[in-house]
Amino acid sequence: MSEITAEQVAHLANLARIALTDEEIEHLTTELGQIMHAVEQVSEVATPDVPPTSHPIPMQNVFRDDVVGTTVLTADEALAGAPESDDSRFKVSAILGEEQ
Amino acid sequence: MSDELIRLSAAALGAKLAAGEVSSVEATRAHLDRIAAVDGAVHAFLHVEGERAIETAAEIDRQRAAGAPLGPLAGVPIAIKDVLVTKGMPSTSGSRILEGWIPPYDATPVTKVREAGMIPLGKTNMDEFAMGSSTEHSAYGPTHNPWDLDRIPGGSGGGSAASVAAFEAPLALGSDTGGSIRQPAHVTGTVGVKPTYGAVSRYGSIALASSLDQIGPVTRNVLDAALLHDVIAGHDPLDSTSIPEAWPSMAEAVRRADVSGLRIGVIKELDSDGFQAGVRQRFHESLELLEKNGAEIVEISAPHFEYAIAAYYLILPAEASSNLAKFDSVRFGLRVTPEGGGTVEQVMSATREAGFGPEVKRRIILGTYALSAGYYDAYYGSAQKVRTLVQRDFDAAFANVDVLASPTAPTTAFKFGEKLADPVSMYLNDIATIPANLAGVPGISLPSGLAPEDGLPVGIQFLAPAREDARLYNVGAALEQLLEAQWGGPLLAQAPDLSTHELTATEEGAL
């Protein structure tokens, strides 16, 4: 499979919303290459006839009545750990930048 | 008196509490004193409840005095892995990004231990977001192995394992995604159980990989693990992956332990040259002991286990990269604003850069890559197929044997720093524990002795079919009884006395 480049890692970091430094990108490029080399052996046995498993125990979807439960947090409790909030809402900085 | 109290098993302490020979306040105080004396050197705890634990204990003592019906572990102190959220107690999952966060609710296993009258002593150290095998990836510094303070206590739940091994708590809660309960048990001479996936609610457990994570007991003996398992297991409507059926008593399985006629399969692929000589030696001695007492030992092959680590290190990062997206600087935890301000996305990126450690970043990027368009089928899709093949290996094996056995991990505790620079060699620690998580089956690790070459603890792992957790307690309890008869007591009685480390602790501060 293809080699990982620094540009790819920078792109992935952007997708994952982590402002990696150039040094971190350099490190990760090497490490990811090594790790991917170690894990790509999965393709040796993953033949088309094998069905994928996403969950260890077969389960069905769970439904419940659409009523308010007993474990619901109050707005104050929900906001208590927020870095910034006003009365009843989480507060964030601008959604759009100047170039947008 | 105090030293005697901390060395009791949870079951024995519970019995003394029930008989009124000791109060929960006394028992809790004895453990808090022990934490004060040795935790500077061990660093098993990230948070200690202190006087609040004493107040909780006093309340249980009042209930007992009033004649309230209490369970076998009522009044017994317990340590809680920091991956579980606890109302009113800090919960960081070993990460800076959650430093100082006080959750507004309890995880279901925490609710259950509180309802059982147990006394939370505090929160235990772990690799950040449970990513690691050594606690070296904790943002708050590593935990030290009570058998040798220069060595790792295993991970990610090194704090929970070390806390019970150092007699700071009689038992603890852990979480196991690829071995995080069992491998620390192996290197610290303690007992750890990963229940069947879905046996214990994951509600309030800060998710690493949702299809692999499972909460379980961390203790010094098999009966204590069974008692705690009985407390925390059971259906929870708040976790849709929780198994609805009722469970038999694990403590009962321990009390009836008998291996005559039990068919034990030795996994050929996990009994190889890649394992340390002393680890294999103790493993085979344990098997011989079981055989002498009526068990039948059969060699079985699990040909796809060699692909399990590769599949795991694709599935886990993929799920983790998604689960950790919630740390976005909006609802809880850290917020870092770039110089001169920025958009919400720039704030998010700066926060995650500052708040996540190197291993977390590595796995998020890896997971993002494995899930990205063009690579999804080759990596994540293939890994899911390997998962099927590993499950088929288990199905074939369990058609012939009742339980499977292997050494829990390839080596005894290694020294700090030994594997830090090489992520792939660190990942290989989990070679024997990962298959159980991929297939959802339960596993136990219990001490099988000390490796002759380094005098460090070695664990033996048993695995059972999904929902047959009781089989683990049966074989585990039987082997423990046979081994302790040979050793003349528990293995931990041979661990070094840590009380001389009090001064070091004070000098070194928050190591």
UniProtKB/TrEMBL annotation, chain A:
InterPro entries: Asp/Glu-ADT_sf_sub_c (IPR036113), GatC (IPR003837). It comes from the Bacteria. It catalyses: L-glutamyl-tRNA(Gln) + L-glutamine + ATP + H2O = L-glutaminyl-tRNA(Gln) + L-glutamate + ADP + phosphate + H(+); L-aspartyl-tRNA(Asn) + L-glutamine + ATP + H2O = L-asparaginyl-tRNA(Asn) + L-glutamate + ADP + phosphate + 2 H(+). GO terms for molecular function: asparaginyl-tRNA synthase (glutamine-hydrolyzing) activity; ATP binding; glutaminyl-tRNA synthase (glutamine-hydrolyzing) activity; transferase activity. Its EC number is 6.3.5.-. Signal peptide: none annotated. It is an enzyme of class 6 (ligase). Keywords: ATP-binding, Ligase, Nucleotide-binding, Protein biosynthesis, Transferase. GO terms for biological process: glutaminyl-tRNAGln biosynthesis via transamidation; regulation of translational fidelity; translation. Pfam families: GatC. Allows the formation of correctly charged Asn-tRNA(Asn) or Gln-tRNA(Gln) through the transamidation of misacylated Asp-tRNA(Asn) or Glu-tRNA(Gln) in organisms which lack either or both of asparaginyl-tRNA or glutaminyl-tRNA synthetases. The reaction takes place in the presence of glutamine and ATP through an activated phospho-Asp-tRNA(Asn) or phospho-Glu-tRNA(Gln). Heterotrimer of A, B and C subunits. Belongs to the GatC family. This is Aspartyl/glutamyl-tRNA(Asn/Gln) amidotransferase subunit C. The lineage of its organism: Bacteria, Bacillati, Actinomycetota, Actinomycetes, Micrococcales. The gene is gatC.
TrEMBL record, chain B:
The keyword Ligase applies. It holds the Pfam family Amidase. GO terms for biological process: translation. Its EC number is 6.3.5.7. One of its GO terms (cellular component) is glutamyl-tRNA(Gln) amidotransferase complex. Residues 26-472 form the Amidase domain. It catalyses: L-glutamyl-tRNA(Gln) + L-glutamine + ATP + H2O = L-glutaminyl-tRNA(Gln) + L-glutamate + ADP + phosphate + H(+). GO terms for molecular function: ATP binding; glutaminyl-tRNA synthase (glutamine-hydrolyzing) activity; transferase activity. Allows the formation of correctly charged Gln-tRNA(Gln) through the transamidation of misacylated Glu-tRNA(Gln) in organisms which lack glutaminyl-tRNA synthetase. The reaction takes place in the presence of glutamine and ATP through an activated gamma-phospho-Glu-tRNA(Gln). Heterotrimer of A, B and C subunits. Belongs to the amidase family. GatA subfamily. This is Glutamyl-tRNA(Gln) amidotransferase subunit A. It comes from Agromyces cerinus subsp. cerinus.
